[in-house]
Structures are given as C-alpha cells and as structure tokens.
Specification:
Strand content: 5-15%
Oligomer: single chain
Radius of gyration: 42 Å
Distance between the termini: 98 Å
Order of helices and strands: EEHEEHHEEHEHHHHHHEEEEEEEEEEEEE
Strand order of the largest sheet: 8-9-20-11-16-17-18
Helix content: 25-40%
Structural class: alpha+beta
C-alpha cells in the first residue's frame, strides 16, 4: 500500500488512556481496547469498574487478558508505517519540475503529519484531565479541529480509500497520521486518576524502560519488555496494585504488634495489682501476728521474728521478680513500639520498590517472652512458721491452726483502715498538668524529656549555678505556681525506700543547708527506710500507714490553707496539714539519694483518672 492510496491512522492503535501505541492491549467486554497496565491502574481502588470510553458499568471487575491479535496488528502497523514513509521517499522523482513538485508534496505531508499529531495530542490530553475523569470529547471540540476518536464520524473529503476503516487517510485528506519520528515517547506514558508518570519511575537496567509491573510468580518488579521476554506466562500486575495488596498485609502485621503491646500493658497492670494485693496480705499478716503475740513476750519472740523475716523475704523476692519482669516487658514494649513505628513509616512511604524490599525485615518475628503465666508469686510461705509455733504454745494451738490454714482476711484490715481515716470526694476534679522546672533541679538529678519524671544520678551534671537551682538538697520544683484555688496531681513512687513530696513557697532559699519545715515554706510528706512516714513539721509528725502506697495524690486548697495526701490505689486519705500560704506555692519533689542502689527508681508524675473519686 503506497502513501497516495492511504493507510490507517494512529487513532486506530492508540490507547485512549496513555495516548501511546498499544502495549499488551486488552479488550473490555464492551469492545474497547486499552493497554493492560493502563486499564488495570485506572480501575485500581474502585468498587465498581467503568469503561473510560462508553461509561458501561461493571459491578464485578472483568478478567482481562492480552489481545494477542491486536498486539500483532499493532506491531505490524508500526512496521507498515515505516515502510510507507520510506516508499514515499523512494518514489520521489529526481529531476525537473516533477522532482520539485514531489519534494514540495512530501514536505507538505510531513508538516501535516506533525501538526495533526500535535493538535490531536493536545485535545486528547485535555479530555483526560482528572477534573472530568473522562476520555470523551468535550463541548469545545469541533469536527474540523478535534482528533478522530474511536467510533466517531471522520471529517474527510470523499469516501475513505480503504473502505473498511472510517479513519483511513490519503494525501488529500485533512487528517494525516502521526509520523514515526513524532510518536509520543514510551517514557512519557501516564494514566488518569492521578497515577505517577512513567518518567518518575526507575528504569529497567536491561531494557531502559520504566519499571511499572510486578511479577507475582517471581516476586520481582519488572518493566513491560521484561514481561514480554522473560515473564510471558507469569501472573503480572501493576506495582500500584501489588503495593495496595501489600499494605493490607502491613495492616494485619501492625494489628498483631498492637495486640502484643496491649497484652504487655495489661501484664504491667496485672503486676502492679498483684504487688498491691501482696502488700495488703503482708500488712494483714503482720498486723494480725503483732496482735496475736502482744501477750506473749518471751515465748513467742523467736516465732514472731521468724514470721516477720519470712514475710519480708517473700516480699523482697516478689519485688525482685516483679522488677525483673517489669524491666523485661518494658524492653519488649520499646522493641515492639519501634517495630510499630517502622511499620507505620513503611505504610506511608511512596517508594513502592523500597517498601517491598523492606517488608521482609519487618515481618521477622521479634524474640519476646511468653507472659501468659503469673509474674508474681502470692504464696507467702508462712504455714510452716505458724505450725511450728502451734507446737510450742498449746493454749494457742487452735487459734494458730486457723491462722495457718486461712490466714488473716485482707478485707478486715482494709475495712478498718477505711473507717478510721477521713475521706474526701472529688479532689480529682481539680487535676492540673504538672511538669518539672529544669532550672531548679539539683545537678545530681536527671529529668525525663517530657519533664514528668526525676531520678537520682551518682554522677553530677555540668549545669549553670543559677539562683533558682538547689545546690545542697537533691530536689526539684514544678513549673506551675498556685496562689488561689484548688489543685491536685498524682506521683508514682513505686517501691522506693525514700522520697519527699508536697509543695513549697516559690521564693524559698535554695542554697546551702535548708530547714524544711512549714515555717520556712515547705509542706511535704516523707518516706525513710521504706517504713517510716512523716510530715516535716518541727518536730516531725509521724504518720502510721498499714498500707504502703504505690502512688501518692497531692491536693492543695490555697484559699483554705490545706495540703492533703492520699493513697491513690487504695483510695485512702493519708494526712492533711492546715496552714496559711503567703504568696505563690509550687509542687516539690525529691527522689532522695540512691541508697547504694536500693532507691534508684524515679518519681513519675502520672495522669489523673478524673472519674475515679475517693
């Protein structure tokens, strides 16, 4: 077929989505053809699929296959166009006016080829903007200027020379085909719906083509040429589709890690509750034994000493076990939260290839312990002590045997403590957000990044000696100041052996040795040697506590001059001091020294549960 007789235009072999010659063309059930990767990307994420041309709706995504016949025709068309252009050049006369006439005709054909292709390219790009999301002609197009589309009536003079195609072209028609030299580059392929342009994708090192496909059979990213040559019968989908499926697996992986985190958080809460119950049991047994042996001086001193020693050893062993389990769980929580953060970052990445490369490392299970078994043993082991005592004291045999078998009820001690202690309701309603003032911290104190925790360090920090900083007493003040109203906050003390908590006047002296009494602007509760509680008056006011608190609540009523302390976990009032505050007051914290490693735990300001009233 020669140029004068006409040949098919590019419109017959252009993908309506990427505006390039078909690559692996696939046909929809409605009869329209598109590049397989283009139509797959166009339908990604849609619940229902719609043909971009005729808008036919498919409520189930069609199973598209490559149209081998159309692909072969497209390749044949490429070769035919090249042969036709070469034939025009070879048929051009070499002499005389005929030679000049044919040269002019050839130049006009080439100009029309270039101009028509550029015009048709612009119109197709305009019709595929994301705002319209349609490939049909707009109302601005006319039959004379708009490019011919599949299924439209051609604007040519006279019948088509080919007869079989409504878009056939001849040198006299006004719509010449695109010359091979002006075809759009395959590197500029794009799709509708906001997909990433091919020019932004990495290139295949073998074929120098954009890597836009994923071979599920070989689990690797490939380009279209790789698919044709090396993966012809494999399951191949677009990278975007594969990445969306991978992100679903990421969400399951993230949920699994999240469940593991929740399990360990619950285990930490279980440990704290177990230690609280253990403490109640220890205190109950201690108080009961002291009452039982009060009338026995000499005969039961050894039994009493053995019993208290056994209880203390059990408690220390349980505390050590709880601390070890807590540290291990916290370490696993850090690892799991780090893995969770990495998974979240990976799920948000736009680099699909890097995401697929990184996923295997994040899918590897972490080495974590099994926390299904109890971490704290509640068995106090006092049965042997009581049985030994029952043999020595026959008159107490019945009573001691009952205690050895059943022990002292925890509820008896708790109910008596609650009835003898005054209780306030609703102090949590006055909760405030307390943070530590770094400018006041003693050089041996280490503050956390969120200014919610403080601990003692054997090595002092190099800090400026400003007027606000304490230089002798290892303490730190809060940033918040109060001069009126009511305020409440809670501090986790755990199993520390020594600490000081309360409030202080804002303008107190902070240099040298301090007299920490209310007269000098200090109102706080102290713990010494794990057992001795006292309020720092002159002299100190001892506070007897049967239950050792794990968390202390501090309530300040500036208008009425009250400072109150509470056992948060047991919901018990500890002590209230009445005074007159002159000027502003600030929260006061002292974790005390480490006591040779026995008091290394920090003081931590914790959130207040406003719904759990005392």
């Amino acid at each position: 077929m020669s140029v004068e007789s006409g040949f098919l235009t590019d419109d017959e072999f252009l993908c309506p989505i990427c505006l390039d010659l078909f690559t692996n063309p696939a046909s929809t059930p409605c009869g329209h053809s598109f590049c397989l990767s283009c139509i797959s990307t166009y339908w990604e994420g849609d619940k229902f699929c719609q043909c971009p041309l005729c808008k036919k709706m498919y409520y189930k995504k069609p199973d598209l296959q490559i149209n081998s016949t159309l692909r072969e025709i497209t390749e044949h068309f490429k070769s035919m166009k090249e042969e036709q252009i070469d034939g025009v050049k070879q048929a051009t006369p070499k002499r005389g006016k005929s030679h000049q006439h044919h040269n002019n005709l050839l130049n006009q054909i080439q100009k029309k080829l270039s101009k028509s292709f550029q015009h048709r390219k612009q119109e197709r790009l305009a019709s595929s903007l994301p705002e319209t999301n349609s490939l049909m002609p707009t109302h601005h197009e006319s039959s004379a200027s708009a490019p011919h589309r599949r299924g439209s009536t051609p604007s040519v003079h006279g019948p088509s020379p080919l007869g079989s195609s409504p878009l056939a072209w001849s040198p006299l028609s006004g719509s010449p085909p695109d010359p091979p030299s002006r075809r759009p580059s395959r590197q500029r392929r794009s799709t509708t719906g906001g997909s990433v342009e091919v020019k932004n994708l990495p290139l295949c090192p073998t074929h120098n083509s954009a890597i836009m496909l994923y071979c599920q059979t070989d689990q690797m990213c490939i380009c279209p040429e790789c698919e044709e040559q090396e993966h012809p019968d494999h399951d191949v989908i677009s990278i975007e589709t594969q990445w969306k499926e991978t992100k679903v697996n990421l969400s399951f992986l993230e949920k699994e890690v999240e469940d593991m985190i929740k399990e360990r958080v619950m285990k930490l809460s279980e440990i704290r509750k177990s230690m609280s119950k253990l403490e109640v049991s220890v205190q109950a047994q201690t108080a009961g034994s002291l009452t039982l042996f009060s009338s026995l001086v000499a005969s039961v001193e050894r039994a009493q000493s053995d019993l208290l020693e056994t209880l203390e050893m059990k408690r220390r062993a349980a505390e050590l076990q709880a601390e070890t389990s807590t540290r291990q769980i916290q370490l696993e929580l850090e690892q799991l939260r780090t893995r969770q953060s990495q998974i979240q970052d990976l799920s948000r990445t736009q680099d699909h290839i890097e995401g697929l490369k990184t996923l295997p490392s994040l899918s590897t299970p972490l080495l974590v312990s099994d926390w299904t078994r109890p971490c704290v043993t509640l068995d106090l082991g006092t049965e042997a002590v009581y049985r030994s005592l029952s043999l020595q004291l026959q008159k107490f045999q019945d009573e001691l045997r009952t205690i050895a078998e059943k022990g002292f009820p925890d509820t008896v001690l708790e109910s008596s403590l609650v009835q003898t202690q005054p209780r306030d309701r609703g102090v949590q309603e006055y909760a405030v957000d307390i943070t530590l003032n770094v400018n006041t911290a003693h050089p041996h104190l280490i503050l956390s990044g969120d200014l919610k925790s403080v601990r003692f360090s054997e090595r002092p920090q190099m800090l400026p000696d400003n007027p606000e900083r304490f230089d002798r007493v290892v303490c730190v003040l809060g940033r918040q100041e109060f001069c009126r109203g009511r305020h409440y906050w809670e501090v986790e003390v755990g199993n520390k052996t020594d600490w000081d908590l309360g409030v202080a006047r804002r303008n107190i002296n902070r240099k040298g040795k301090l007299e920490v009494t209310p007269a000098n602007g200090y109102w706080f509760l102290s713990l010494r040697n794990r057992m001795s509680y006292a309020f720092r008056t002159q002299p100190s006011t001892n506070v007897d506590l049967a239950l050792h608190p794990q968390k202390i609540g501090i309530f300040v009523d500036c208008d009425n001059g009250q400072v109150s302390f509470y056992n948060v976990d047991a919901k018990i009032h500890i002590y209230t001091f009445n005074d007159t505050f002159n000027g502003s007051i600030v929260p006061f914290f002292s974790p005390c020294t480490s006591k040779n490693g026995k008091n290394e735990a920090p003081l931590t300001i914790t959130p207040v549960n406003a719904s759990d009233y005392y």
